[in-house]
């Protein structure tokens, strides 16, 4: 906006000079023309004054009173002296109207008196609240306009073709938040007539249907072209740049589908400002840095940069602002190639830069040296005295933040988040900071006192570090410009304010999670425009105070009070609330219902009682609803199925809900996670669950559901978790059609039911997610705002898996009446971690194919009727930690080796014909037992004798001297480890010393 302000100054200088004439001796400057005065008053009276209006993009108007308040004050009718009004000194007509930040609220209709001001040459209506207004065709009647600026004021609708009548327009500035639409036809008609246009600034104007080549219709006089966030699409021909030989500024930021090749482009007039961030431009960087040496600002964030080489930056000798963020550049930050003499703005965010930032050693007032791991005492020229912005977020930088950064006198923005910086935060030497973000590092120590002296600070984020110490909340009283304050996830203790006489009125984001606070901070009492409030994981107890109901009542969209000790929250008055987290408190009473705008509602782990109100079904935008772990009773409202088009997560687990699951889930619903575990639900499953084609997690465990196996769930294409444990399901498991069944299933728990018949062999063949190798990329199931969890038996214990890894696979069919043999096909499930088939009526032998279960960590086949020997192949399962084969009819010797040497008696108890280690019962044939214990060692014993001169007789002799058990044990260790040469020498030497 610097160029806009400069152009605006020149325009007004021109208007002021042109309006001054040499009046005759008898003439005096006329008063405001009465028609214009009347029109201005009518325009003023058509609006209300909203002093609390906050522009959408956060541009603050401060405490500036509305310019229209002084109009007609004390009865004066001379509008030429009114604030924001400029008159022609010869005619008295209004030629300039600047109502920036005037807190006007209302609609500008086509019959507005504004359009009576036909002599206007400059009109600025930016930063007001005209939401609902259209860019009326009546603007075309202001034919003398030279400068028109309507920024952040809420206009919408189609761009009127009547703008083509503004043939004298030199500067046009418009923004609309995608509500103002410009198409190709209108663009051609308008801009072919605006031949004097030099500056065009369109921000978030919807240009989706504009053909990029139609920009050729823009005036060749263009010096500044900005089309940011306009959704331009298609290819912009590279020869189009020759259309504007005087172009000094080009900004096409965030047109993500706009392509072009910036390879051979060369303007006859030097370009000073270029912003192609977040476009699909292909940029030949060697050519650009060679041919555009007059560039002062180069912003190429997230572009297709060809030929990156940091040495190319040496060509940009006039550079003041540089942004290469989001480009995956590696190596060290190229400090030695930057124009530090003039640089004011530096952004290298979210790349892969590594190492430490260099230290500076000043040799004199103009020369410095930087040193780092790779460049020791390398002279880099003048000290960067003019740096105002350093943004290096999201890299791999480490070490301490160098001292010279704290010494920069003009530094306004310092963002180093998401790195690995260590050490303490030093004191800042100046008070110029406006934005400080050091979050997600490894910084420690106290918050420096100088931060509380940064009176211009608007953004402070120190969250997710190891900062410590006690900070009084009254320390923030000096920071009256704060918009964002984030101190979460440190080791800080924030004490209550000593004084309650201050508020942070401009605050919009406050995150104080895990800050050891015991009460709601009083400085937010008058924060009318709060957008986000997070005071989770603290020690706040008792009811929510009444004064909090007015905080951000019309603006708050994120609220997190979870993990405290709140007991009562009688109302949820916030009209725009989208995210509400009240989990893990002590809330009692009826379930509160938030406003219809809510998207995520989490209120689990409280003490809420009563029925779920049917009003909850009015929440038409709801995506996540978690009411689990309360004492809610009654039935599930049938209407819950009505809003399943938006609902993704429904968790009503661990309550006292009863009756049937009567909800009807509509076709095309979005349900991804349905958890009704731990209630008293009964009856049959609703067949409409087949309509939940996006269902990934279905947990109906621990209820009283009486039904056969729901084989029709096979049709759910992405189902991964199926929990039916501890119900009254009965009959056989499976169906006649199993070719494409449960292919994504990774966790299945059917335990503690009444299933009978044989194991479903074809299901085991179709569990592709358990057959395939684990995915390369580990991730948790769920989404950013909600992580899937499940309670499941792992290694004999019921454990809540709070976050489910995508490699976690298990089958539990224990405590049923399943008969038959264990299918050999089960050996194909190479990826799964646990198998529990205990407490059934399985017969036959343990399949040797179990050897293929290379990732198996627990195996429970206890309390069945399995017979035969334990296959020696089971010793090949190297990750096996828990084995339970007790209470069967197994016979023979227990295998030895690897994990089997770690299992105790309980793994084999109540198998009367098993013998060998670790049981006390020895096998009948002692020699056979010894051979079983170490078969390969004894087969090669003769070779051992010849090599070492140390044989079994020596071991027996050792037994005479030191005890039989010790002798045999040493012998076993020697032979079993297969590396006796060195060890036997040590043993013999030790034995000889013992024997004297």
Automatic annotation (TrEMBL):
Q: Which compartments does it reside in?
A: Cell membrane
Q: Which UniProt keywords apply?
A: Cell membrane, Glycoprotein, Leucine-rich repeat, Membrane, Receptor, Repeat, Signal, Transmembrane, Transmembrane helix
Query: Is DNA damage a UniProt keyword of this protein?
Result: no
Gene Ontology cellular component annotations, sorted alphabetically = plasma membrane
Q: How does it sit in the membrane?
A: Single-pass type I membrane protein
Pfam families annotated for this entry?
LRR_1 (PF00560), LRR_6 (PF13516), LRR_8 (PF13855), LRRNT_2 (PF08263)
Q: Which residues form the Leucine-rich repeat-containing N-terminal plant-type domain?
A: 33-88
Location (main, coarse): membrane
The signal peptide stretch is 1-18
* Stretches that traverse the bilayer: 955-975
Tree of life domain: Eukaryota
The UniProt entry's sequence similarity note says: Belongs to the RLP family.
Q: What is this protein called?
A: Receptor-like protein 33
